[in-house]
């Protein structure tokens, strides 16, 4: 037995599709919101990367500043070791002065903490190794950032 179905009337079709436009609008708002949240996350990441690059550039400039002072000073290896090797007393005035500049420029640098105190070492051949550490305010609890440079200063 075959039933002949008549197509629904236009009025009935409109009644069946009620709310579809509202559903489409809600889905569009959801997609738009996810896109905006993605852009906000991308912006936050860009700001963090920019800040990290700024601190790294400051560390490079501070290391170059110290190397420049060493070149302008008496370049005898014993003098460089005495004045610039890492120490926490006034016995090494070049290091203490530079360390104060580093602490005022980079965040989270302290002379009392071995994990964030800059390290300067001059070996017997006049090779200077400088390691600068810092910890950005948003990096609390994580390992400090590090910048290393090595140069040879000869008489």
Structure explained in plain terms:
52% of the residues lie in helices and 13% in strands. Helix 2 runs antiparallel to helix 4. The longest helix has 53 residues, at 20-72. It has 155 residues and is an alpha+beta fold. Strands 1-2-3 form a three-stranded antiparallel beta sheet. The chain starts with 9 loop residues before the first helix and ends with a strand. The mean pLDDT is 88. It contains four helices and three strands, in the order ααααβββ. The chain crosses the membrane at residues 21-42. It comes from Ramlibacter alkalitolerans. This is Type IV pilus modification protein PilV. Keywords: Membrane, Transmembrane, Transmembrane helix. InterPro entries: Pilus_4_PilV.
Overall 3D form: rod-shaped
Structural class: alpha+beta
Stretches where pLDDT falls below 50 for ≥5 residues?
A: none
Major sheet strand order = 1-2-3
Helix content: 40-55%
- Order of helix and strand elements from N to C terminus: HHHHEEE
What is the CA–CA distance across the termini? 110 Å
Number of strands: 3
Number of helices: 4
Q: Give the overall average pLDDT.
A: 88
Oligomer: single chain
- Sheet of most strands: 3 strands, antiparallel
CA-based gyration radius: 32 Å
**Percent of residues in beta strands:** 5-15%
């Amino acid at each position: 037995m075959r039933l002949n179905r008549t197509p629904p009337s236009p009025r009935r079709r409109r009644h069946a599709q009620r709310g579809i436009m509202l559903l489409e609008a809600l889905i569009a708002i959801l997609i738009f919101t996810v896109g905006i949240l993605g852009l906000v996350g991308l912006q936050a990441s860009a700001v963090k990367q920019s800040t990290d690059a700024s601190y790294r550039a400051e560390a490079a400039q501070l290391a170059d500043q110290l190397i420049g002072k060493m070149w302008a000073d008496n370049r005898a290896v014993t003098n460089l070791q005495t004045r610039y090797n890492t120490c926490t007393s006034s016995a090494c005035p070049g290091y203490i002065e530079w360390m104060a500049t580093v602490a005022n420029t980079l965040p989270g640098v302290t002379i009392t903490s071995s994990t964030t105190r800059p390290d300067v070492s001059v070996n017997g051949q006049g090779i200077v190794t400088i390691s600068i550490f810092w910890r950005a305010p948003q990096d609390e609890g994580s390992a400090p950032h590090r910048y290393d440079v090595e140069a040879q200063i000869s008489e």
